[in-house]
Amino acid sequence: MSVGSWRATLRIARRDALRAKGRSALIVAMIALPVLGMSAADVSWRSVQLDTDEVISRSMGQADALVRDTASERPGDGSPLPTVAIRQDVEGDEWRPADLDRPPPGQSVTLLPTGGSPDRPASRAASAAIPGVTERLVDRFGYGTVSTEHGRTEVQIREFDYTEPLAEGMVFQRGGRAPQALDEVVVTEELRRSGGYRVGGRLTEKSTGRTFRIVGTVDLPNHLRKFMVIGRPGAVLDAMRALPGASGSFAEQVDELIRVPGGVSWAKVKEANRQGFLVKSAVVLEDPPASDESQYESPRQWVDSRALRLGGIGVGLGLLEMILLAGPAFAVGARRKRRELGLIGVAGGSRRHIGGVVLGGGVVLGAVGALLGTALGMAVAALLRPWFAEKSGRLLGRYDARALELLGIGAVGVAVGVAAALIPAWLAAREDIAASLSGRRGVRRGSRVLPIAGVFGAALGVAIALYGADGANDKVIVAGVVVAELGLVACCPALIGATAKLGRFLPLSPRLALRDAARSRPRSAPAVAAVMAAVAGSVVIAVVWSSQNADERNRYRPNAQENHVLIGFPGRVPGTGLPGETAVSARGAEEIRRAVERILPDAKGGPLGTLGGTCVQEAKCVTFRPEKLPEARCPARSGDDRWRDDPRCRYETRAQNGFFRSVVGDADLLRKLTGADDPRAIEVLSRGGVVLFENGYVGPDGKVEVKAQETFSGPGMVRMPSPEAAESEPPGVWLPAVSVQAPFGLSGMFASPEAARALGAVVEPAGLVYDAGRSPSDAQKQRLEEQVAKVSEQGFVFVERGFQPMSDARMLLLAVFALVITVGASGVATGLALADAQKDLATLGAVGAPPSVRRRLSAFQSGVIAFLGTALGLAAGVLAGVVVRRGQKSAVWDVMPAEAKSRLHAPELVIPWSQLGLALIVLPILAALLAALLTRSRAVVRGRTA
Q1: Is 282 exposed, middle or buried (0-12, 13-18, 19+ CB in 10 A)?
Q2: Separation between Cα atoms, residue 565 and residue 780, nearest integer Å
Q3: Left, alpha or beta for 89 (phi > 0: left; psi -120 to 50: alpha)?
């Protein structure tokens, strides 16, 4: 065809699109939906992937480097600590000692003071390791407790002048202003919401009693959910360090932002590492060293370097989805204008001209759909930025719309539109002109070869995808999944025909719908394929996301049963006493119990008592310990390594409860505290016995020997009797006992009140344990902490909320856009099929069918297409998800050293069957309801076409 012919063809296609606005809108929507999704995903993905300058700005502002003295991260009491050489990763986020056991031969150990002074933080200056520093800004972190509107809460306290030019980009001012005086602070927006603060209000740091005025709120770009208070340098941390007893427990982190002419090279970073400094360098981040020069690969880097690249898989499946979505659009469009194409033939147009008109429609509508989808995608990406930030807990980077990538996506949309119009154009060119003018369709029988080829293609695709998964090759995985999905597409006509055979058992409307779908397979099969492609993309995301959440859940280590509240009281427990610490009296414990039951009215639980740790004199306590059986004791003595491989000498405990050692309570409290639900334990407690959580203590007669033992203790130390003295102790008390397994067992024992009386122990309050039924709110927890602090400042409140998944912004955006495309494409595909079935509805009206029959027919036609497409999409999506998950496991887990695997949980494959089953029901029902609502109630009288 000449240029003039193409110009005429495009003009005809444009006028035809404007004349049939409804049909054209559906075709444009079908093309625009995947373009919208891919454009929005591209912009959002690029925004999530921070550029190097954004990484530098958020972590070190405008400085050349951020330097941290690793010794300052360790709590000290003012005594010297050794300077330990370290190895760090290139990003400056993780480090480890260069020699975990001892310094290298010939290298001396340097001692450095860790105690701070009011005018200097407890760390060495960065200039000690990096010469040429021209400007520096100190950033100090500590932890404390502050008052809130509801009570009190623990926060990170930071002294940092973030208004300095050197710190620009590290803290974003959300409201108000930065602090300018020592009695002014700002709080993070998350802390403001949780604590009920307002700009202009006040908060008090509890340990020092200092009160501050809140002058603004801020966001930490990478940590939106952090509770943090930021004040001026010297505002409170030095006062907290100077408190009595704080030198042994107060820990802080001190960072320095420095400016160095020429920057800090990798060689200078390694030199600073040898002196115990961790360095994050802008020069190194911009131009990282070669991998062979890197001195430390962190576990996170190791996993990331071997992880399966999901981006390439997503792009490949996205392109396939675009092709399958655009196909039915032009197939239905060509069938809707058969008469117009026949008139072109009557007017003397050749078959090439007829095909060109259809192809021109692909160009025109494809271009419109691509432009509209790209524009909407950019707008949607901009509108969803705050939502993504809230869900992922970090601000996205700058709005990163890359013109070349968006043009590429739009060009792909146009190309897909043209490609999707090729087959309809070829079929239209071969159509008999008389049949086109008369509107006769005839009955097309399905191909016998196509379903066989489809089954073979699907099997071949599965084999290729599994091969790629075993080798962790994303390109091979994509090829296999694409071949498998195309095989399923080839099976669509045969599946529609097989489904139609069920019509004989159904009422009129569904029977007509099934038979019409089988009779019009050129219309139905592409629509089913379109729905399948859309559903498959969402299912892949669902399977991968569910599996990764399961991995995170397996890595999570709870400290108590979910939705349980543990409150602990201070006491003279050997080795943990602090100056000024006093035990909670029975009256104080009762006050706290009443407060808990008032704040959490639905909570069930009660108080716990201490069995060991009762002090009869200052620094002189009596504890009770169970004795191991002679045959279970380790025969080794101090310094004797001959028995180190003896199982009896291995300290293996199943205790996971780090809050209590030995307590007194009943069977109900045993279940709530430890999770033990063993009938033997309940029976032993009813007989006045004790429950243990390790083997080797209970004798054949079902009893354990419990001895009273004097210990001499002080702050941070405890002196136990020597083994020889322990052997000469008088015999203890034999009590009924049982050893059980429990998720949160104690390192000591759980004793009944009768056992405590038999031992002659003085039972004092140890704490409380409650099952709250549901996770307490932040406000309730803050009120609890305030009530406990009224009785004892050393008490603690712990709420086990269970695993709280953090949403990865990249997975989140993929899931959102996949869901939008799925719902939209399902509706548009069924709408196109209904548009092609208008003559059938007119025929029903002509023979006197009531409106309800026409509506039901439309509903069942849409429901059949949506159901078949959803079922195939679920199968294809689960297959792709399983293959991708297998590839992830092959990439990391299968090549991980055996010793590392022993401490980890193997990756799981989790298929959300309940959600998939719900989708199989909900999507067809939604499509059917939408079709029923959009079908006209009155019959439309159409003129004769022949």
Answers
A1: buried
A2: 11
A3: beta
**Coil, strand or helix: which one is 484?**
helix
Rounded to an integer, what distance in angstroms lies between the CA atom of residue 767 and that of residue 657? Answer: 14
Query: How far is residue 142's CA from residue 570's CA, in Å, rounded to a whole number?
Result: 23
Half-sphere exposure of residue 420, counting CA atoms within 13 Å on the CB side?
36
Q: Distances from the Cα of 25 to the Cαs of 32, 318, 321, in angstroms? A: 10, 22, 19
**Mean pLDDT of the chain, nearest integer:** 78
Does the pLDDT at position 272 exceed 80? yes
Beta pairing partners, 751: 664, 690
pTM listed for this prediction: 0.73
Q: Which of 826, 883, 833 is nearest to 317 (CA)?
A: 883
Report which DSSP code applies to 655. Answer: B
Distance CA 240, CA 155 (A): 14
Q: Report whether pLDDT(32) > 60.
A: yes
Identify the CA nearest to 692 among candidates 633, 768, 745.
745
| pLDDT, tens digit (0-9, with 9 covering 90-100), for 714-740 | 444 444 455 555 555 667 889 999 999
Q: Rounded to 5 degrees, what are φ and ψ at 277?
A: -105, 135
Which of helix, strand or coil describes residue 431? coil
Q: Closest by alpha carbon to 380, among 47, 6, 879?
A: 47
- Helix-helix angle 851-892:838-846, to 10 degrees: 150
The 3-state DSSP class for residue 185 equals: strand
Helix (H, G, I), strand (E, B) or coil at 42: helix
Distance CA(703)–CA(692), nearest Å, equals 11
What region, left, alpha or beta, does residue 870 occupy, with left being phi > 0 and alpha being psi -120 to 50 degrees? alpha
10 Å Cβ neighbour count for 194?
22
* First CA to last CA distance, the chain: 31
Largest CA distance in the chain: 118
Give the ranges where 652-721 is alpha helix by DSSP (H).
667-674, 679-686
The per-residue pLDDT for range 324-357, each reduced to its tens digit, is: 766 666 666 556 565 566 556 655 566 666 667 7
Give the DSSP letter of residue 448.
Answer: S
